[in-house]
Amino acid sequence: MSSSLLAMGIFTLVGAITPGPVNVLALRHGAARSRLACACYVLGASASYAAVVWAMGQGAHWLIQALPHLSTAAEWLCAAYLLWLAWRLAHAPVETPVTEAQKHNDSVRMLQLLLQGVAVQTLNPKAWLVALAGIGLFVLPQANRAMAQWQFCTMSLLACLIGVGCWALLGQWLSGWLHTPPRQRRFYRLLALLLVASVAAMLA
Hints:
The chain is an all-alpha fold and about 200 residues long. Helix content is about 85%, strand content about 0%. It is built from 8 helices and no strands. The chain has helices at about 5-15, 20-30, 35-65, 70-90, 100-120, 125-140, 145-175, 180-204. α3 crosses α6. The radius of gyration is 18 Å and the shape is globular. The mean pLDDT is about 80.
């Protein structure tokens, strides 16, 4: 692997695995859902991020720079959506450990979780900022931009599958500790606070 591909891999993995709204929700789903249901959320978020990277590479960032008011409105719209998710998370009902009946319900909800992963990632300002930075670092300086963009999109997809997947697995590991309602309530409220903090950091 060349040094540029190695640097690209490190950049995309760090961007995907650091705390953020998508990963906070992955942790929550990992603690409360079956592995297959979590995989749907992870896949939706990862595919959406690859699409965000592709859109940025195709010149969406020039539109945002040309229309600064659109950028500000989009930022606040994304923040409002994520804060609504934080409120839902803080008030989420406690659940019993995953049973066969719940796994059946998860199978019914797989499409919903897939679409939630797409929505959260698409409305995640961190995703757009990291994608823009990566395009500037690894795509625009290259002579063959089409190939560089394809490589960056592929690397971003793999990194997101790994990064978001690790948070979902951490949630699965914590599910044994979360067998009592008080622990679940504290856990969900902590995640809600982390989500609010990540939104505040992005707006700052």
